[in-house]
Amino acid sequence: MPALLATLPADDSDAASLIGQVGSITGGLRAYLLEHFNALRDFYVDAARRRLHIVLWWD
Q1: Positive or negative CA dihedral for 24, 30, 35, 40?
Q2: Taking the model in full, what pTM does it have?
Q3: How far apart are CA 21 and CA 29, in angstroms?
Q4: Are 32 and 8 in contact (CB under 8 A)?
Q5: Which long-range contacts (CB under 8 A, 24 or more apart) does 10-17 make?
Q6: 33: how many CB neighbours lie within 10 A of its CB?
């Protein structure tokens, strides 16, 4: 994740335009991405610890 965040432009509005974000993200794009990455990682770590199966579905 640090390598990904390092590739984002320093200016938050320039960085947001790369992902198609219109408007501002409270706290900045880096903080937003890091928060959601950590939540997703924690979800998978907990599922693995509890020996749960994860099903992904997209169409």
Answers
A1: positive
A2: 0.69
A3: 9
A4: no
A5: none
A6: 17
What three-state secondary structure class fits 1? coil
Reading the block at residue 37, the tokens are: 């990455």
Instruction: For residue range 21-55, list pLDDT tens digits in order.
Output: 666 677 878 888 899 999 999 999 999 999 999 88
The DSSP line for 7-54 is HS-SSHHHHHHHTT--S--TT-HHHHHHHHHHHHHHHHHHHHHTT---
Q: Are 31 and 24 in contact (CB under 8 A)?
A: no
Two structure tokens written together for 54: 């994860």
